[in-house]
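Treating backbone geometry as a discrete language has practical consequences that deserve illustration. In the encoding step, the backbone of a single protein was reduced to a row of integers, each denoting a local shape. The amino acid sequence and the backbone structure tokens for this protein are reproduced below.
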Amino acid sequence: MIYPSIDEITKGQYNRYTLCIATAKCARIVTDEYVEQREIAEKMLANKETDKSLASMIKREIRDEKAVKTAIKRLYNGEFVISEGGESKEEEKAGTDELAQTIEAVEAAAEAAVSEMEEEASADAADEDADA
């Protein structure tokens, strides 16, 4: 049996999909922690600031266990908390604003391209009239 069970982690508040998404996000955080600690350890070894091994300078929890297993343990212990609604209002607004800015930039580029093509066409027509 897998420990802790889904019911123990969610306490009946969340469905399996929510738990899966939360675990994946937490596992990504754990992986980022590992990468950060490894980079620091490699720099220290490269600069000969320590005589410890690379493995001994990384937390055992994130070095020896899989990220998903660590994430599940942290969710169960309350180190990570599943929040309702996913993204915060600020994140949603920032994402919406960013999308609107991207759309405006694409529209402006398209209008500029159309204007440029129209100018080229009118210049070509003027050249043909001058030649005739």
User: Anything to note?
Assistant: Helices lie at 6-10, 16-46, 60-64, 67-77, 89-131. The radius of gyration is 28 Å. The mean pLDDT is 78.
